[in-house]
Design a protein that fits this description.
Blueprint: E1 10-15, E2 21-22, E3 37-41, H1 50-55, E4 85-87, H2 89-95, E5 99-104, H3 115-128, E6 133-136, H4 140-152, E7 156-161, H5 166-174, E8 178-182, H6 186-200, E9 203-204, H7 210-213, H8 219-227, E10 235-239, H9 244-258, E11 268-274, H10 279-285, H11 312-321, E12 325-329, H12 331-345, H13 351-366, E13 374-379, H14 404-414
């Protein structure tokens, strides 16, 4: 853990519904209307500059004045953040778009963007004095929370749907987490985790530490702006489960503008969901203000299979405020998107990444994204966690005898050489 100075820039927690403010304490919902709370900063007290940020270590903690930790001695840092913003010329040429970047969060310490909120939430849990931590998860957050809890020396309890991908479960278990597999959906696991948080006073990062937890995710757009030369992109395509990442990106853009780290922005937010669990996309297409939960999500993109998205209404508002779009992808399109990204750019994404690429392709074909526009796609998790969705029969595996003649004969037949 690092030894740094105190952060006095946190002003309050504010209800996103009624606007009531609270001291930044161990509270996550409004006592008046039960609305969710978000962290408010004393922006005027923050004095950071681009040159200062550029000299700092290449983790998300380089933006520490805009993260909700008061005692920086509590930072639990595995090195999450400052992931590559990769210009993708081959994929751009294939899809016929002018400028395309991948924000590659597959290279985070546990293989997903969830390391961003996890490092903030576990650090905050230490600050609050929780004796144990945990999360409700569709897989990626389980590993991220467990890894950071291991570094912090805290017991960790992970609540997952029992059909979560095996690789993700084993990864979280390897970090020492206790796995609670709930026979139901993510929403069932989430409810059980909430009860555990209240009964046992555990720091469940995405429930009773949520106002602080979500702040870590906005660092993805801080990095995008810095890596583009301190400017915001034209379009960002974001895979959407709960909607928290999309909301965090919107909040991050506004904070960078307030601090004059970027000169304004006209970024369109584009939400991408799998067809089998797309309540936000449906509300957008129906021009509805309400989100109607999906009772039984059915999709191979299990990390996005959140039928009742906690930040759904706010994500929908952010998309509309930005002048953005929302689109879904079928399971077949998701797999095609994963293969296309891997074959053209060497990035192996989990199905959520396939959703992002599939939606990009659809929107270029429909003309909703112009061929002369710039797009950043958020690839939020590694494909190595979801290998079971690929059939071994579909892989291009060629068997030969262990001699050169066998290889030459194959080459003549198949045109390999």
């Amino acid at each position: 853990m690092k030894t740094l100075k105190k952060n006095g820039h946190i002003k309050a927690l504010k209800c996103r519904e009624c606007g009531r403010e609270y001291p930044p304490a161990k509270i996550h919902a409004c006592e008046e209307c039960f609305g969710p709370l978000e962290v408010i900063y004393n922006i005027d007290s923050i004095n950071i500059s681009k040159p200062v940020i550029e000299t700092r270590s290449k983790t998300l903690w380089r933006y520490r004045e805009l993260l909700p930790l008061e005692d920086e001695k509590k930072i639990v840092d595995l090195g999450a953040g400052f992931t590559p913003l990769q210009e993708c010329k081959r994929l751009a040429e294939t899809l016929r778009v002018k400028k395309l970047y991948i924000k590659n969060d597959t290279v985070n310490p546990t293989g997903s963007f969830k390391d961003r909120p996890a490092t903030v939430a576990i650090s905050k849990s230490l600050e609050f004095g929780f004796r144990a931590v945990g999360c409700a998860s569709t897989g990626n957050l389980a590993a991220a929370t467990a890894a950071h809890a291991a570094l912090a020396g805290l017991p960790c309890y992970v609540f997952i749907p029992s059909n979560t991908e095996r690789g993700k479960v084993l990864q979280a278990a390897a970090y020492g987490a206790k796995i609670v597999a709930v026979k139901g959906t993510y929403d069932d696991a989430n409810r059980l985790a909430a009860q555990a948080a209240y009964e046992f006073d555990w720091g469940i990062v995405n429930i009773n530490v949520r106002p602080y937890y979500v702040e870590g995710s906005k660092t993805i757009v801080f990095e995008i702006c810095e890596q583009l030369g301190w400017r915001a992109p034209e379009n960002i395509i974001i895979p959407v489960g709960s909607g928290a990442l999309l909301c965090a990106i919107w909040r991050g853009l506004k904070q960078f503008r307030e601090l004059e780290l970027i000169n304004g922005f006209k970024t369109r937010l584009i939400g991408a969901q799998p067809e089998g669990c797309s309540p936000i996309v449906k509300a957008f297409k129906d021009n509805s203000e309400d989100i109607f939960p999906v009772e039984k999500p059915e999709t191979i993109a299990r990390s996005l299979a959140i039928g009742d998205p906690g930040d759904g209404v706010y994500a929908l508002r952010a998309i509309k405020e930005s002048g953005g779009l929302a689109e879904y992808a079928t399971d077949e399109e998701i797999i095609e998107g994963m293969r296309l990204l891997a074959k053209t750019e060497g990035i192996f994404a989990e199905p959520a990444g396939g959703v992002t690429i599939a939606v990009l392709k659809k929107l270029i074909e429909s003309g909703d994204i112009g061929k002369d526009e710039e797009v950043v796609c958020c690839i939020t998790g590694s494909g190595f966690k979801s290998l079971e969705i690929f059939s071994a029969d579909a892989a291009s595996i060629i068997e030969v005898e262990p001699n050169f003649n066998s290889l030459k004969n194959l080459a003549r037949l198949g045109g390999v050489m």
